[in-house]
Amino acid sequence: MSDYAKITPEIAAKLRAILGERGLRADESAIEKYGRDETENLHFAPEIVAIPESAQQVSALMKLASAHRIPVTPRGGGTGLSGGALPVCGGISLSLEKFTKIRKVDTGNLTMEVEAGVSVAEIHRAAEEVKLFYPPDPSSQESCYIGGNIAEDSAGPRSCKYGPTRQWVMGLEAVLSGGEIICTGGANRKDVTGYNLTQLLIGSEGTLAIVTAATLKLIPLPKETVTLAAPFVSLDAAAEAVQAIFREGFAPSAVEILEENALKAVEEIHDVPPQLAGKAALLFIEFDGNDGELLLEQAAALGELLESIGAGEILAARDATEQRRLWDVRRAVGEAVKHRSVYKEADTVVPRARLADSVRAARAAAEANGLTAICYGHAADGNLHVNILRGDLSDDEWIKRRDATERQLFETIIALGGRISGEHGIGWVQRQFLPMAFDEAGLSLMKRIKASFDPQGILNPRKIFPD
After folding, report:
1. pLDDT value at position 1?
2. Does residue 348 share a domain with residue 270?
3. What is the pLDDT of residue 41?
4. pTM passes above 0.90
5. What is the distance between the alpha carbons of residues 263 and 111, in angstroms, rounded to a whole number?
6. How many angstroms separate the CA atoms of 87 and 276, rounded?
7. Which of 21, 75, 79, 165 is the most exposed place for a label (fewest CB within 10 A)?
8. 268-315: per-residue pLDDT in tens?
């Protein structure tokens, strides 16, 4: 369906009555800003930008949009990498940036109720003030919103031990496409009362409902962390080390990998300790807990294991400053890729034992099409971020080679037992590949779920599913 209505002066006036003068923008700078996210160099102009401040305003807006069949694209912090916040059908870009309240921190139930526009870093700080901990740690935590994390089921390095966002969301407040406000789940630790709508909405990429608030689960804050950085002269040794860590019973909070091309890119913009420079792969490993001496013992035992597999000189840090120095090498890779070139990021995931195969698949697919791939990511999860560099190619040539590279990569990833997205979502840019991952019965079922939530197809249209 594509016969969407345009926003007339009469509809704009009704939106203004709902949101007030400051809640509606159509100026050039707003159209530019809200037509982009962090996905490549794409821009889709909304007709108007809505900035509500309450679920009730979102409800009224959705009732109006539903009555006139106007497309609405929800937007969090604009940090997404799959084009999920791009208003590809025009219409309304609905920003949750005013949903900034931390409504409640419950130290008895170990929960936090937050609005959708609170950044993940703010959630971390609010929890830590009362010695509590919200584990999910996406790399964009200072700027990404919890609503966007819920929409994408985001994760980060600590997903190794603690899992992705969905494991920490107990309940949601959300607005449906027709304007109904629903509340799912809550602060209860058990609930099998009907279908689990909370979990259905998590990871649905804003296509089923607009999340306006969430109840999050917290745990006591670990008192200590220890970080290791281990260099390897071969990718296979690093991948074997990842398997051995878990096979031997270690329980790290993070295990991250940089392969050779990623490390070279980082070395162009960032100081890398000489023990780590120029290697085929690096592993960054973190332990957390309450007994610092026990963590050091675990780190020492792990160091012996890694050396037996072929690790070079391992750097270990307990001091916060030294840990940050090691992690800064890992965190610099995103900026290093941007420094190199415009790029397209694929977000593949494979069974942990196929990690090295997935790196080789990325390299082979890129090289077959005259491109370069830079790989890094969450080794413990088998979740590899494959950055395909554009270089100086023309638009047409880049699109042709990029798409061919991704298709070849995804074919191999699926053959390895993997999936085409681990945490960034399908969104706009990966939707053409979705049929590679599902049979017709699975696709049909998901489309029926979408239609039952959004019968007019106005909520984040042309996302996830190919046309």
Report:
1. 47
2. no
3. 82
4. yes
5. 39
6. 43
7. 21
8. 999 999 999 999 999 999 999 999 999 999 999 999 999 999 999 999
Q: Which of 324, 285, 322 is nearest to 301 (CA)?
A: 285
The whole-angstrom separation of Cα 159 and Cα 175 is 28
Asked if residues 146 and 213 have their Cβ atoms less than 8 Å apart, the reply is no
CATH of the domain at 382: 3.30.70.2740
Residue 360 lies in a domain: yes
Q: Is the domain of 86 the same as that of 124?
A: no
Give the pLDDT confidence score for residue 274 in this predicted structure. Answer: 97
Q: Give the DSSP letter of residue 5.
A: P
DSSP 96-142: -TT---EEEEETTTTEEEEETT-BHHHHHHHHHHTTEE-----TTTT
């880049």: which residue's tokens?
398
Place of tokens 């190794």: 160
Residues 127 and 215 in one domain: yes
Rounded Cα distance, 206 and 264, in Å: 37
> Cβ contacts of residue 195 below 8 Å, gap of 6+?
none
Question: On the CB side of 467, how many CA atoms lie within 13 Å of its CA?
Answer: 7
Cβ(60)–Cβ(75) under 8 Å?
A: no
Whether 99 contacts 121, CB under 8 Å: no
For residue 201, what are the domain limits?
102-220
CB 319 within 8 A of CB 296: no
% residues pLDDT > 90 (the chain): 98
Domain termination site, one of 220, 254, 276: 220
* Whole-angstrom distance, CA of residue 324 vs CA of residue 314: 16
